[in-house]
Specification:
4-stranded mixed β-sheet; rod-shaped; 735 residues; single chain; 6 domains
Length: 735
């Protein structure tokens, strides 16, 4: 991929990318390309891709003799008085040749004649010819002489051009004007104001009268462009500026001036005026940029060439010395290839996500005084590479789903961000199976790979599954693809979809449940305790108990939070012997769900029946959970330890009274209206207070002097009294 990337405006040369041959693609005209410059060259910049490297090619254009000398005018007329003395020189029109060196004009030749010869003068690259009078003229013999002037180059083969010289032999005007100098020199700054005087030429004539009066003119035939820039006063010979002078177009001028008298015939003399133009810094540098890459990948290596920069300043000397710089804030720099030729290369890390394009400003300043500068802007587009993985806003996403939700509903839309663009930023979402889930994830949820919508595949049941976890992976479409994960926690929210369930020994409505109470039961007498559970959680599992009795019957009440059924008052003769009760257990959900249980309460009057009933009650077995069992064991253990400590303390007390229990009077049990009872003998009294929630199995009649003790807390009052108490729920009053 060796190719030409910069050079002249016309593509004179091309490279065959297969063979590497450099060939001419367009005809080269040296005279058009370099005018009369001594050296003509074309500078090219070439590049190879792999590895990227720049080359400078300088091609010298050699001149061939393809142009003939030529005169601006095909003929020129010279008026010469017959009295002109031999040896006088007359300037001739100068010939031009577009070729240079040997192919340029080398000499002049004059056709053979008896009166004139040719004087050829070389001054550097300039060759001029003058006509020299060799033999006096005689107007009466020959009034018109025609000669041929030939200009020859030194090419191979040589070429030539001709111009006719017509000489008019005039009658006597004895003296020719004479210039004070044959060559005048002056210097002038370019862009000098129009009308500025350069110098004054001066010629004199030895004749008298009108033959002495001199008129100054500028030669016109071969220097028409000079007449557009300079003007001479015909009377004074003062040379002034008539047009714009530009060093870059003409660094110097060679002006031919003529002084002619007014005699008949008029006599003329010629001189040269050399005007050297002094360069001013009036041209700012010109920046030419050749881009090597339309876009630059953001992972491009440092040192990669992006563009070629060439700078041209038409001024000369220091005014044409140029220095280029770019903004240091960009990740690019200029490397000098050779004079006024630079490469713009990468000098830092590119990140399209931070800056997608750069406008690199190149400033070219010359060394003139004052310095001139110009700027050029190179727009560099940074193309994307897949260097950014998708990112989620948080490493965890929590999703809350109500149980019994519809299948196919969108649980959550996950979204990741990828700073890359196009395919590198296009993402697909996938679910990663988790080993922590007991149920296959593919049966529960699915994800839309394009939108990230997580869709349920089943209706969730809080009582079976409360939470599960999985990961979602976002993968872009870059090469190679990049990905990242987010952990999704799904929490199933409980709905009130389970009714309360009545626990044993009672069963729900429709079954026969019965309890017995003595006719003598006091207010607050414990009848039964209803227990229920709800598979839901939270408020949906918060249960309350309500009692439904026949109208007009206000014998029983139930604890709304404990489910304990107790008597409100003592029995009366008007009360029924059988009381059917319906207990409603309701949860606190929305809407509330409930269950009912029916209990028939039998009122017994016989003490034997009561005794039997009391002893029969413990036979009923209740189902205890493991937690209840552990709690019961703990309570019994603490109670036994406390009971042993209490017995020891009482024994010590009794020993101090110097008597045994036998000296006490007969024991007496007193039943109080609130349901408690007290035991007393002689002067000592033992009060035992039972709470209303004590199971009937706890009440056993002993003939021993001490009442049965099954207490949560026993306190010693004084030294002879102990009291059993139990902490009740906050809504129940102690008996």
């Amino acid at each position: 991929m060796f190719r030409i990337v910069a050079g002249s405006k016309k593509k004179y040369f091309e490279v065959n990318t297969k063979t590497g041959v450099l060939y001419v693609s367009e005809r080269i005209d040296r005279e058009e390309l370099c005018a009369r410059a001594a050296k003509c060259s074309v500078n090219l910049e070439a590049v190879i891709n792999e590895p990227l490297k720049l080359y400078r090619i300088e091609i010298n254009i050699l001149d061939v003799n393809d142009n003939s000398p030529y005169f601006i005018a095909k003929s020129q007329t010279i008026d010469i008085a017959e009295s002109t003395l031999p040896g006088i020189k007359f300037p001739l029109l100068q010939a031009y040749d577009a070729d240079v060196g040997r192919n340029g004009i080398n000499t002049y030749k004059l056709s053979s004649n008896e009166h004139f010869s040719l004087a050829v003068t070389k001054a550097g690259d300039s060759i001029s010819a003058e006509l020299v009078l060799q033999k006096a003229l005689d107007r009466e013999k020959e009034s018109l002489i025609t000669l041929t002037l030939t200009a020859l180059d030194d090419g191979s083969p040589p070429k030539s051009g001709t111009s006719d010289i017509i000489i008019n032999v005039l009658d006597n005007n004895d003296n020719t004007p004479v210039f004070a100098k044959s060559l005048y020199k002056t210097r002038v700054f370019e862009n000098i104001p129009i009308g500025t005087t350069l110098l004054t030429i001066n010629a004199t004539d030895a004749d008298e009268g009108t033959n002495k009066e001199i008129v100054y003119t500028l030669s016109t035939k071969e220097q028409d462009h000079i007449l557009q820039i300079f003007q001479i006063d015909p009377n004074t010979g003062t040379l002034t500026v008539e047009g714009n002078i530009d060093f870059e177009e003409n660094p110097a001028f060679e002006i031919r001036a003529q002084a002619s008298d007014k005699g008949q015939p008029p006599m003329s003399a010629h001189c040269k005026v050399l005007v050297e133009v002094v360069d001013l810094n009036d041209n700012a540098p010109e920046i030419i940029v050749t881009s090597l890459m339309n876009t630059v990948k953001e992972d491009v290596k440092a040192g990669t060439a992006i563009a070629l920069v060439s700078v041209l300043d038409k001024d000369g000397g220091k005014n044409g010395e140029v220095h280029c710089t770019i903004d240091d804030k960009t990740p690019f720099k200029l490397e000098t290839n050779y004079k006024n030729y630079y490469s713009l290369v990468v000098d830092g890390v590119l990140d399209r996500e931070s800056v997608s394009q750069y406008n690199v400003t190149i400033t070219a300043s010359d060394a003139g005084s004052p310095s001139l500068s110009s700027t050029g802007v190179i727009n560099i587009q940074v193309s994307d590479v897949n260097d950014n993985a998708p990112t989620f806003s948080s490493p965890y996403i929590n999703i809350y789903v109500k149980e019994n939700s519809h299948v196919g509903s969108v649980l959550k839309s996950v979204s990741a961000f990828d700073a890359d663009m196009d395919e590198n930023g296009h993402m697909n979402y996938y679910v990663l199976e988790s080993n922590t889930n007991s149920v296959p994830l593919s049966t529960m949820i699915n994800i839309n790979s394009e939108t990230g919508d997580i869709v349920s595949l089943q209706s969730f049941n809080y009582e079976e599954l409360k939470t599960f976890q999985f990961k979602v992976q976002a993968t872009d479409s870059g090469v190679p693809p990049l990905s990242s994960n987010v952990t999704v926690n799904v929490f199933i929210l409980d709905e009130n979809d389970n009714s309360p369930a009545i626990l044993a020994p009672y069963s729900e409505h429709g079954s026969v449940n019965s309890e017995s109470i003595p006719y003598s039961a006091e207010a607050g007498y414990f009848v039964a305790k209803i227990r229920a559970v709800d598979a839901d959680s939270g408020y949906n599992a918060l249960l309350s108990y309500h009692l439904s009795e026949p109208k007009g019957n206000n014998l029983f009440r139930i604890g709304t939070s404990t489910g304990e059924i107790r008597t409100k008052r003592r029995m009366s003769d008007n009360d029924l012997k059988t009381h059917p009760l319906v207990v409603l257990v309701s949860d606190n959900g929305e809407p509330s769900l409930s269950a009912t249980v029916s209990i028939d309460v039998l009122v017994l009057e016989s003490a034997a029946d009561i005794q039997t009933q009391f002893r029969h009650v413990p036979i009923k077995e209740e189902s205890f959970s493991d937690l209840n069992l552990y709690l019961l064991i703990a309570i019994v253990s603490v109670s036994l330890i406390f009971l042993l400590s209490l017995i020891t303390l009482i024994a010590v007390k009794c020993h101090r009274t110097d008597g045994a229990f036998s000296r006490y009077s007969a024991p007496m049990i007193t039943t109080h209206p609130d349901g408690s009872w007290s035991y007393s003998k002689s002067t000592q009294q033992y009060d035992v207070c039972f709470s209303s929630d004590t199971l009937k199995s706890d009440v056993v009649v002993f003939p021993a002097p001490f009442p049965p003790v099954d207490a949560d807390l026993i306190s010693i009052n004084g030294g002879d009294t102990f009291t059993r108490t139990q902490t009740l729920p906050s809504k129940e009053k102690p008996v």
